Amino acid sequence: MDYLWTPWRYRYVAAPKNVGECVFCTAHAANSDEEWLIVQRAVKNFVILNRYPYTSGHVMIVPYAHTADFSGLERDTAAEMMLLLQRVQAAIDDVYHPDGFNIGMNLGRSAGAGIADHLHMHLVPRWTGDTNFMTTVSETRLEPEELSTTYTKLRKALAQ
Q: Which of 28, 58, 118, 120 is catalytic?
């Protein structure tokens, strides 16, 4: 049997689980952007790195309002989400030069939402051939960059 050592995941495994608390609400209220990996704050939404990314640069755009109802989302909030999506996509393109992007939302647990009570939009940079045997066969992802490095790169790119 082969082992892949992932010591950075120990923080997640060992951390107390806040059952009933929304991770997105906790993150934006914490006022500790680097710790919570919030790379940009806007008026109605914020941009946060995915702690368990598909690829380097995988971010989520999250409204401050705690809601799972996209159809009922305020127009200003939805419009700002799209503007942030454009801005962050351009920043990721400048920093990482991916071959493409996946953009989407999973609304509801049955649609694949890991956090179903607070909607969020994923932006995932993709490279030709980035689905390798590790992901396909063993459901394991290999990330070439630590989240702290991704955070620093994207925060800098978005500050320009």
A: 120
